[in-house]
Amino acid sequence: MTKNNKTTTLKLEKETKERMEKLREHKRETYDDIIRKILFILNMVRDDPGKAKAILQFIDEKRKRMFETEKKSGPENRGKKKWNS
Fold first, then answer.
1. Which of 24, 26, 1 is closest to 82 using CA atoms?
2. pTM of the model
3. What is the CA radius of gyration of the chain?
4. How far apart are CA 63 and CA 11, in angstroms?
5. Which of 43, 77, 41, 73 is nearest to 60 (CA)?
6. Cα(65)–Cα(71) distance, rounded to whole angstroms?
7. Cα distance between residue 21 and residue 38, in whole Å
8. pLDDT tier at 83 (50, 70, 90 boundaries)?
9. How many CA atoms lie within 13 Å of 32's alpha carbon, on the beta-carbon side?
10. Cα separation of 80 and 84, whole Å?
């Protein structure tokens, strides 16, 4: 994102935010990234529902790996850069 982009603030219900978190593939993914992903998948459903489902399954697998990596690294390493991912 460049500095020339304009940004805005959105109010979200806590439940909506929690649901968005379930689509996060990595810790540094922004809410803008997540919303863009949601819109991409929504448009994909219209054209190719099977491919949209595959994308969601891929996201689920990636999230599982992310949480497994966090568990293995332990609390002392959380928040530190992981170079092997």
1. 26
2. 0.65
3. 15
4. 25
5. 41
6. 10
7. 12
8. very low
9. 6
10. 12
